[in-house]
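User: I'm writing a tutorial on reading structure tokens. Could you give me a worked example: one chain, its sequence, then its tokens, then a sentence or two explaining what the tokens reveal?
Assistant: Sure. Here is the example chain.
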Amino acid sequence: MDINNGAIQGNPIKCNLSIVNHENCILDNILVSFIAERGEGVISYNNILYKQGDEFEYNLQAFPKLEFEYIPLMSGIQSLSFTIKTNTDLLTKTIEFEVIKPYLEVEIPNLPEFINTHEESKMRLIVKSNLLNLKITSNFTKGSGTVQFNKDLLYETMNITQTENIITICPNSKGEIRIDFYIFNDFGSSKHYIIECLSI
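And here are its predicted structure tokens:
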């Protein structure tokens, strides 16, 4: 079994599991499952997530090499044991590797104290991370208005694909403004960032 990229908590790891000498298998589909003897994570195969002990079918005759993603949910040493059930054999394979902790830093430099009502105010949003598939959402918890993220209206979750981003705030009420930003991925890492200013 090969791991094609470094292991970071919360990031998918592309994996290849090769099954050799499978010519005697009568069944096209075999059953695959895994147990994390050390560590914790899930497998993504055909856009479906599988937990420890879950079995999924794999067409051995069509694809001798099984390609999937493993998402570690904690850092440290991980030891995974895979079980492959064929019509004739019960095979196991164990691998061990290290998973490093993720980092996620969010900054909006030169945040103004005042912004004008019904006028757009542009700000830089800097997101530094070793995580993949980051997303952003926002919510006015004081005041009201709109938020754009890189020129698109941020009314639901959007993907973050770069370090340097532009957010555009347009308040439609005067007084104190508070906007809560949540930056996260789907596997546990998140950052809560708050903007507070006065709309005049």
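What the tokens reveal: The radius of gyration is 23 Å. The chain has a mean pLDDT of 86.
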